[in-house]
Design goal:
Strand 1 and strand 2 form a beta hairpin. The protein is mostly helical. It has a two-stranded antiparallel ribbon. The mean pLDDT is 95. It has a single domain, classed as Four Helix Bundle (Hemerythrin (Met), subunit A), CATH 1.20.120.450. It contains 6 helices and 2 strands; from the N terminus they run αααααββα.
Length: 172
């Protein structure tokens, strides 16, 4: 039996809320949007590259965003000693390059688990709390939320184009 990416209903965006709720709402919306772009596709379709020489795929985006969440929320902000998800010394872009349709279901489960772990890791931290990032920059948890929203928005645009190329489906 061929695994098919599950459908989901995106959570509603808050329209009037405090800052933390608004940022979390937008982040959750973009997380859901990425999964919505994948819904109904087979594992083989999820690893279909956009066009040569690009290695950009929907499954690669799911894997990449799991890694991005882990790095920003858990490694950099909280300081957890968590391992790389896909990258290796020999292939730092393995989230995009080392794809196997047989692992698609597990990769989606990893993405969902990473979201849960990241949300739990920062749940008791304030938006104004800071950490030292590379290059000596001081960044806040608020900055991470805004950055992640921006990164998802950019990659969701890529996902929309990938999905349209695969089966003609478009949408927001």
């Amino acid at each position: 039996m061929t695994w098919i990416a599950p459908s989901l209903t995106r959570r509603d965006l808050p329209t009037v809320a405090g800052e933390r709720q608004m940022l979390q709402g937008w982040l959750d919306y973009h997380r859901d949007t990425l999964l919505t772009k994948c819904a109904g596709l087979s594992a083989d379709q999820l690893i279909k590259a956009s066009s040569a020489p690009s290695t950009l795929t929907l499954l690669g985006l799911v894997r990449h965003m799991a890694w991005v969440e882990r790095v920003w929320f858990r490694r950099r902000f909280v300081g957890e000693q968590v391992s790389a998800l896909y990258a290796t010394k020999d292939d730092p872009d393995a989230d995009f390059n080392d794809l196997d349709p047989a692992t698609a279901e597990a990769d989606f489960a990893t993405f969902r688990a990473e979201i849960d772990a990241c949300d739990a890791a920062v749940a008791d931290h304030g938006l104004d709390e800071t950490f030292q990032a590379s290059g000596g920059r001081t960044l806040s948890l608020r900055w991470i939320y805004v950055h992640l929203i921006e990164e998802y928005a950019r990659h969701n645009g890529h996902a929309d184009l990938l999905r349209e190329q695969i089966d003609g489906v478009t949408g927001d």
